[in-house]
Amino acid sequence: MVEVIYNEKLLIHFFQDSLSDAALTWYIWLDNTKIKTWKDLVDAFIRQYKFNMDVGPDRSSLQAMKKDNKESMREYTQRWRETLVQVNPSLLEKEMINFFSNTFKAPYFEYLVRSSAHYFSNLVVIVERFEQVIRLGKIVYLTEEKSFTRKRKETEFHNIEGGYKGERKNYQKKDT
Predict the structure, then answer these.
(1) Which of 6, 29, 122, 169 is deepest in the core (most CB within 10 A)?
(2) Is 162 within 8 Å of 140 (Cβ atoms)?
(3) CA distance 167 to 159
(4) What is the DSSP code string of 84-138?
(5) Against a cut of 0.85, is the pTM above it?
(6) What angle do CA 45, 51, 56 make, to 5 degrees?
(7) What is the 3-state secondary structure (H, E, C) of 13-71?
(8) Residue 83, φ and ψ in degrees, nearest 5
(9) Cα distance between residue 49 and residue 156, in whole Å
């Protein structure tokens, strides 16, 4: 195999085996009269696909990701990881855990923040278990609408003390 490294014609020939889809189409349409050396091919490839490094996902892209309603936790995790591997520079394990946890809403977020997962793989197991427990009905998951209604009633209860429509109530004890 070491001999191949020094054989530019073989490197150029086998390069196409590493390509697929649009990159393979680009290679097929490439003007081979301009490619004389391995360096020529590398330069042409970088010119064509450098934008992927410039406009690829970054840390804010990871933070902005959300799970689709139709998507299982496993599917979402795989999609998130596929985006993660494109982020440069790579994230530390602790950053991965924080970024991934922050993409969730309640009740997942609350449980993930409380978890003591030190590895991303452990966090994924926790998320999948939690999804299963909710699906089995062992944990009641309040929808945002119900949660909002409850909070509004609590707010109204606390506003009673101050009175409504600007009226002030005097709740001081009267001497008897």
Answers:
(1) 122
(2) no
(3) 11
(4) HTT-SSPPPHHHHHHHHHTT--TTHHHHHHH----SHHHHHHHHHHHHHHHHTTS
(5) no
(6) 120
(7) HHHHHHCCHHHHHHHHHCCCCCCCCHHHHHHHHHHHHHHHHHHCCCHHHHHHCCCCCCC
(8) -70, -40
(9) 58
Q: What angle do CA 46, 43, 38 make, to 5 degrees?
A: 125
C-alpha torsion 140→146→151→155, nearest 10: -140
∠ CA 154-158-160, nearest 5°, is 120
Nearest-5° Cα angle at 115, 109 to 117 = 115
Residue 152 pLDDT exceeds 80:
no
Residue with tokens 């409504």: 164
Start-to-end CA distance of the chain, whole Å, equals 102
Is the pLDDT reported for residue 67 higher than 80?
yes
How many CA atoms are closer than 13 Å to the CA of 127, on its beta-carbon side?
Answer: 27
Cα–Cα dist 91/59, whole Å: 8
Which H helix or E strand runs over 7? none
Q: Is the Cβ–Cβ distance between 68 and 104 less than 8 Å?
A: no
